[in-house]
Amino acid sequence: MKEISQNIILGDCADVLKNLEDNSVDLIFTSPPYADQRKTTYGGISADKYVEWFLPISNELLRVLNPKGTFVLNIKEKVSNGERHTYVMEMIIAMRKQGWLWTEEFIWHKKNSFPGKWPNRFRDSWERLLQFNKAKDFNMYQDEVRVPIGDWAKDRLKNLSDTDKKRDNAKNGSGFGKNVSNWVGKELVYPTNVLHLATECQNKNHSAAFPNELPEWFMKLFTKEGDRVLDPFAGSGTTLFVAQKMQRHSIGIEILPEYYEMILKQKEQIQSIPTLF
Amino acid sequence: MKEISQNIILGDCADVLKNLEDNSVDLIFTSPPYADQRKTTYGGISADKYVEWFLPISNELLRVLNPKGTFVLNIKEKVSNGERHTYVMEMIIAMRKQGWLWTEEFIWHKKNSFPGKWPNRFRDSWERLLQFNKAKDFNMYQDEVRVPIGDWAKDRLKNLSDTDKKRDNAKNGSGFGKNVSNWVGKELVYPTNVLHLATECQNKNHSAAFPNELPEWFMKLFTKEGDRVLDPFAGSGTTLFVAQKMQRHSIGIEILPEYYEMILKQKEQIQSIPTLF
DNA sequence: GTTCCGCATGAATCGATAG
DNA sequence: ACTATCGATTCATGCGGAA
């Protein structure tokens, strides 16, 4: 088994990031503290000052990211005064001015979203996963996240209709054999930019937890084994433990001692189980 | 049967809207031409000038909307130079400065998104449904869109995608109602802000940008019978015909004579079938 | 009447080629 | 260098007709 490093650093990422080398990270996956949320834990960045607070950090992230790397930001604006706040929109615009490319926005559909009822809105069951890059030719390993084809195929492609073969061939001409083989026994297809995952929060102490599947999916998609993953708002450490499991080096930064200790503790527990290594 | 008015006006909504009275509309549901799309039909508004083009229109919409009414805008930014363009973000920010409240963003998950494969992105299978209001105490009839327990869209979609069932019902125009009867006995719950619907591919002659279910859902949610619905970019007229079916008055504006004529023609056809009224 | 199969095609996007 | 056009890619669905 290869040696996979896992660094956990206590401190404010705005400071800590300055110690990291340029272009040294292949994927940044993080879920920063939401505005006005988690006041008891992170001290609650106010919605109106969110962009101002985040930009110096994103600037450092831009520096430490490998030119072929990707930054995935899990975020959702809160409701403020009956409206969705615009700080996420403003952040995207401001980050582009910093030099980031806003490549894509994935949707995380939370199947079991937070319960509740309000007179003027329904339950919020989705979050944004904003993909930023430094350059247009970033690494993307699409085959690693293919999914089973939809149920429609079972009925429709039962006897593999010759139609699709013909249509593919008509436009192509040269690649006869290949196109046919694409469809014969096809069971895996590429996913879309909508992810359906349940919110299964293992660490109930941490309010902003996301399921393991979320960082796992993006690590498969944007990194390979031995790459380096960074989470500047490590929280309960989900990103780091997923990285470990997937043989990616990881760096986590966490400002709160409680969470920092919690991550260290869980790390020890995992290491004490030999089968996990 | 009550008398339901349906006005279809040929012209540029930037002009035509000026003839409408203040506060005279209860719901605006529309899907404006997307940037650089449909160049052959619409003029093809460029992405960089989209906001500038839209703001005078949204300003008129603000004027004609009832203070308790809602404006639902179906839109999605295109990829430009390998990035998602920011005009939608900019539009939201600019519309708030006009006086709009950005109350919510619903997600329309399009199950059958456009096919294709690219080295740097997956297929885009969602669109935004931006909810804007004039005031915080807008009308919302949440009970009208309650759905059986579980993922409402899944159940609903299952029924809808059963083509044969639907086809039988489609002839009398009440296909949806019959499916609902299957749900009797199940417990009803409120939906979330994620909608799962497939795009109806074809109406033989022309394609509709969105399925009937989309305006139908928002009409149920934000209007009652006898209310007035406006679609300033009527296109193939989906919003108008749904309004008619649901006993809402409607006003449609369409700039292209071809579409205008098409709507008039379809209107006649519908009126010639007595069972639909 | 059901169920099954053939066929068409969609608010797309990239990269190469041409002016 | 910068812009316009064109071919290639690919999944889910509706409709029509056949078994």
Helical run tally of chain A: 10
Number of domains of chain A: 2
Strand content of chain A: 15-25%
Give helix % range of chain A.
25-40%
CATH superfamily of the largest domain in chain A: Vaccinia Virus protein VP39
Largest sheet of chain A: 8 strands, mixed
Distance between the termini of chain A: 7 Å
Which geometry of chain A do the CA atoms define? globular
Give the name of the CATH architecture of the largest domain in chain A. 3-Layer(aba) Sandwich
Count interface residues per chain for the largest interface. A-B, 38 and 37 residues
Task: Explain what this protein looks like in three dimensions.
Two copies of one chain form a homodimer. With 277 residues, chain A is an alpha/beta fold. Chain A folds into two domains: 6-146 and 192-272, 3-Layer(aba) Sandwich (Rossmann fold); 147-189, no CATH class. Helix content of chain A is 33%, strand content 22%. Chain A has an eight-stranded mixed β-sheet. A two-stranded antiparallel sheet of chain A has the order 4-5. In chain A, β4 (79-80) and β5 form a beta hairpin. In chain A, α3 (50-64) packs parallel to α4 (87-98). Chain A starts with 5 loop residues before the first strand and ends in a 6-residue tail after the last helix. Chain A binds chain B through residues 81-84, 86, 89-90, 92-93, 96, 101-105, 107, 109, 111, 113, 117, 119-126, 136-138, 140, 142, 190-194, and chain B through 82-84, 86, 89-90, 92-93, 96, 101-105, 107, 109, 113, 117, 119-126, 136-138, 140, 142, 151, 190-194. The structure holds a DNA duplex (19 and 19 nucleotides).
